[in-house]
Amino acid sequence: MTASPAPALGIAGQFEDVRQRHAAATLGMWIFLATEVLFFGALFFAYSIARAQAPDAFAAASRHTNIVLGTANTAILLTSSLMMVLAVRSASMEARRTTVMLLVATAVLGVAFAAIKLTEYRLDYLDHLVPVLDFAFDPRYERGARIFFGFYFATTALHLLHLSIGVVVVLAFAWRTHRSWSPELPHSIEIVGLYWHFVDVVWIFLYPCLYLVARA
């Protein structure tokens, strides 16, 4: 009976080689993202039903969202995705210093997004648009508007949580790249990029649903 070949140095026993490990890691991330799509998809589905039942109220509520800050955050996230793409490319070229700079830029843009979003939350509170805590709206649309802002805070807060996790992970890889280089880093950074782009895509769907209902 022929013995199985020993795995390459540094490769766990369940993998035959580096390529198989990379494929497994990539597949794992895609499976995770698929579960996240199902999670956010359920929220978007519920939003669609609620909006169909109270279109005028949702339009009136959407006009109270801050289109300037929402648009600014959209531009920031799109720019952060560009930085991440460039970071992945630099890592594949083993341009270590450039990769670190681009990863830090990605994280900084993520922090800027979070700061603007928290500022927007404060303005919403001052405008009495926070369900449960402090909500005052035109009585004709109050019930539907309350549901709209319930979705608004639930979905944007979940998105902000995912973004915050992404910022921490991106900074961790920037530090790891700065400290030392390994052949595994380009693929790991690529996987982190998949997660970051997912977060951006979620916002691209949230933006029109929350900010452009009555502005199309």
What's the quick description here?
The protein contains 6 helices and 2 strands, in the order ααααββαα. The chain has helices at 18-53, 55-62, 67-92, 96-126, 142-179, 185-211; strands spanning 129-130, 134-135.
Q: In words, what does this structure look like?
A:
With 216 residues, the chain is mostly helical. The chain has helices spanning 18-53, 55-62, 67-92, 96-126, 142-179, 185-211, and strands at 129-130, 134-135. A hairpin with a 3-residue loop joins strand 1 (129-130) and strand 2 (134-135). Helix 1 (18-53) runs parallel beside helix 6 and helix 3 (67-92) runs antiparallel to helix 4 (96-126). The termini are far apart.
Secondary-structure map:
Layout: H1 18-53, H2 55-62, H3 67-92, H4 96-126, E1 129-130, E2 134-135, H5 142-179, H6 185-211
Antiparallel strand pairs: 1-2
Based on DSSP secondary structure assignment, what is the total number of beta strands? 2
The tally of helices reads: 6
Q: Globular, elongated, flat, extended or rod-shaped: what is the shape? A: elongated
Major sheet: arrangement of strands:
1-2
Radius of gyration, CA atoms, in whole angstroms: 21 Å
* CATH class descriptor name: Mainly Alpha
Pairing-aware structural class of the strands and helices? Answer: mainly alpha
Instruction: Indicate how many domains the architecture comprises.
Output: 1
User: What is the level-2 CATH architecture name?
Assistant: Up-down Bundle
Biggest pleated sheet? 2 strands, antiparallel
Cα separation of the termini: 70 Å
What would the average pLDDT be, to the nearest integer?
Answer: 88
Helical residue percent band: over 70%
Proportion in β-strands:
under 5%
